[in-house]
Write a structure and sequence with these properties.
- The protein is of the alpha+beta class and 167 residues long.
- The protein folds into 2 domains: 30 residues; 132 residues, Nonspecific Lipid-transfer Protein, Chain A, CATH 3.30.1050.
- The protein is built from 6 helices and 5 strands.
- A 5-stranded mixed beta sheet has the order 3-2-1-4-5.
- Helix 2 crosses helix 4.
Amino acid sequence: MHNPSPRSLFRIGLLVALVVSAAAPAVAQSDQPAWAADLYDRTEGMVEVYNGNVSKIDLGVAGDQLANERVNFRISDGDEEAVFSFRMDGNNRITQLSPGPRDDATLVMETDRETVEGIIEARNPAAAFRDAVLDDEITISGVGAVNGVKWSAINVVSDAARVFDLI
């Protein structure tokens, strides 16, 4: 029997890794509802407008805390849920938008499809995003112990400010 050389084993391992990594995004995307692909395409088209306006908008209490976060964005429509992911850069611009979740997310944002549609169609998506967060149409929670506590505190402060009509 012929023993494979280390070089042959390396090539086989590399081939397996390539096949698995190529298949993984397809699996994540196939879990999405039928409407998710169109919504993703429209969201992708809105990102440039959002990024062009976000530096002119005060994102409120949470604004400074969004910088450099990695986000899983859960969008519900009835019993169905789509997940997109993105990264916020240091200036709260959206980068690395992808269909499906990120394994390294530091935040989860949750909303409904109607809210996302409104943000996409808004003249100023950054202002529409801020308003949706302030109106509790988009909720934000941290992933992990530190981010979980931080975002719980931010949400308590935001809720108290809303109760006392400060924001």
